[in-house]
Amino acid sequence: YPSEFLMQKITEENQLPVHLHVSVSLQYVAGLKGRALVEFFHSNIAEVENEELRHLMWSSVLFYKTPSVEVMACVLLSTKAIYFLLDDSFIHADEHQSDFWNKENSDCENSSFHLSCCFVLKLNDLQSVNVGLFDQYFRITGHSADHIVTCLTRDSYNTHTFIQQLMAVLSLLARTPSPEPVDKDFYSEFGSKNTGKMENYELIHSSRVKFIYPNEEEIGDLAFLVAEKMDGLTNLPSLNILLYVLAFQVNHFEGSAQNTSSLQPKTLILTSSDLFLFDEDYVSYPLPEFAKEPPKRDKYQLADGRRIRDLDRVLMGYQTYPQALTFVFDDVQNQDLMQNLTLDHFGE
């Protein structure tokens, strides 16, 4: 261990997203290749001597206790645990909420020693994995509020690959069997023999970890919510959600020194008549079993909404993925331009 194929695969996966800023310590990790990367894992991160590194992924993460702070992380999956190597700026981002972090080494800030905090979720503590709409993100749930974290991959391929690797690693765990065989087989769990319709999207793995996938009701709820925001301009049955994607809204600041831009995480929803941007809570829903009260904010909060008929043009950048799109809308306050022109021309 490890095989040449595995080392090559992990090296290929060790690619920093170009559009997201990371600290010097994580840039160092992103520069490691092959055997150096595996040795770094064993000497600095691994908790058990005989555990194997199986998968590496770069992703934005959200913690249940700090749902408004999105931070970049290197996610390492081994045969014993999931490690989240975090950007050290996260410790100072939300001081009053992130008290569950160990801050003993904060005096190293001004030295040449770069510190990253590492959040560890042992596989034996893992209870469920919730996959988000269209595989844009997934939430890993442990036994307490400290052990809930969402990975915002914004990429269905990365989500699918991680889930497959996680299932494979969980299959290696030796867990005590249930007192009685309560788990159904795959086909009775997923489908009805009479109608063929999907009824339950919950897959119970052999390690007794639940993998929960969104069902049609979530899209229906989302369509109803979007229709509410449209102030009854359209009827609900004809409303179709054509696209749901996790994106960033670019806020451009023109400063005296240099022009800078910040990326604000948004959920973009496209219907047949409108384009919406929502602020979405990715980590608090569905409510975990130990939650005594609902979260302080709704799952979806409308940030902006425009009609497609007011869309003037779309500007596309020529850079590689991720692609930047600029939507230019006509700045018209009234609902129907032609109607008002007609009244103005022919009326009193």
Automatic annotation (TrEMBL):
Residues 241-347 form the Nischarin C-terminal PH domain. Signal peptide: none annotated. Pfam families: PH_NISCH_C, PH_PLEKHM2. It comes from the Eukaryota. Residues 114-178 form the PLEKHM2 PH domain. It is found in: Cytoplasm. InterPro entries: PH_domain-containing_M2, PH_NISCH_C, PH_PLEKHM2. Keywords: Cytoplasm. The keyword Signal does not apply. GO terms for biological process: Golgi organization; lysosome localization; regulation of protein localization. GO terms for molecular function: kinesin binding. GO terms for cellular component: endosome membrane. This is NISCH protein. The gene is Nisch_1.
